[in-house]
Design a protein that fits this description.
The structure is a single chain. The chain has about 260 residues and is of the alpha/beta class. It contains 9 helices and 9 strands. It has one domain: Alpha-Beta Complex (2-enoyl-CoA Hydratase, Chain A, domain 1), CATH 3.90.226. Helix content is about 45%, strand content about 15%. α2 links the parallel β3 and β4. The radius of gyration is 18 Å and the shape is globular.
């Protein structure tokens, strides 16, 4: 079993598994170590034929505030930027190999790559204090976890362009109105609601759920996969671009950046 004492916990209760983001002091922001724990948990779930449903939740005030900015540039592996991104894409795509649906229970912030990972799951429900944001462009990069393709399928190009290009923040009620989440509940009912939904799924015939999920995935997955491959290439380019270097230099020097579009 994935490390029960880690910052990503995996626990089983009958046919229902629970993944818990457990880094509450940082609003469950992810670093490379949490990524590795998450991918290990997903690999374990892939090998559980008795699994019927998964709940993905977070401790504390937020489900996940995205990337731990304090960990950026502190990667302890020998992997290149491109290799790290490839590992991340392949790791989260393990969600697609599960026969059991994944329900994400979101409170507080769901930001950036973490928000996108939630979008790759089957069902999202939100507490009434949930907020959603894609701030990557403001940091000189692009969203790169595949969620934007799903988001465009849900909300259309207008809203997704607004969120990606301006960093617009959505409330829980706005997310419900646009279909990003399927339910909004009071904060103290979030975990119970997610568990009730998981148990309802787990009570249905396993093959029925598996095949229904497969039909749904075939409707959208080719476009999402293609988007992730594009993001891998473009993000790697951006990481070495002149504009990205200028943005960082200008911030260090406290001046207005001079971008050239290259």
């Amino acid at each position: 079993m994935a490390d029960a004492g880690g910052r990503v916990r995996l626990e089983f209760d009958g046919p229902v598994a629970t993944i818990t983001n457990d880094n509450p002091d940082k609003h469950n922001a992810f670093d490379d170590h949490m990524d590795a724990q998450l991918f290990e948990a997903l690999a374990e779930l892939r090998g559980r034929p008795d699994l019927r449903a998964v709940v993905w939740r977070g401790e504390g005030r937020s489900w996940s505030s995205g990337r731990d900015v304090g960990s950026i540039g502190t990667n302890l592996t020998e992997l290149t930027h491109h290799e790290l991104m490839t590992r991340g894409i392949r790791g989260i795509q393990q969600l697609w190999d599960l026969d059991a649906p994944v329900i994400v229970a979101i409170q507080g912030w769901a930001i950036g790559g973490s928000f996108q990972r939630a979008l790759l799951c089957d069902v999202r429900i939100a507490a009434d204090d949930a907020r959603f944001m894609l701030p990557e462009v403001g940091h000189g990069v692009i969203p790169d976890t595949g969620g934007v393709a799903v988001l465009q399928q849900i909300v259309g190009p207008g809203l997704v362009s607004d969120m990606v290009l301006t960093g617009r923040r959505l409330s829980a009620e706005e997310a419900l109105g646009h279909g990003i989440v399927s339910r909004v509940v009071p904060r103290d009912e979030l975990d119970d609601t997610a568990r009730e939904m998981a148990e309802r799924i787990a009570a249905a015939p396993a093959v029925t759920i598996k095949l229904a999920r497969r039909v749904l995935s075939h409707l959208s997955r080719p476009a999402v996969r293609a988007s992730m491959e594009d993001e891998l290439i473009y993000q790697t380019f951006l990481n070495r671009s002149d504009d990205f270097a200028e943005m960082r230099t200008a911030r260090d020097e406290g001046r207005t950046p001079r971008y050239r579009g290259s």
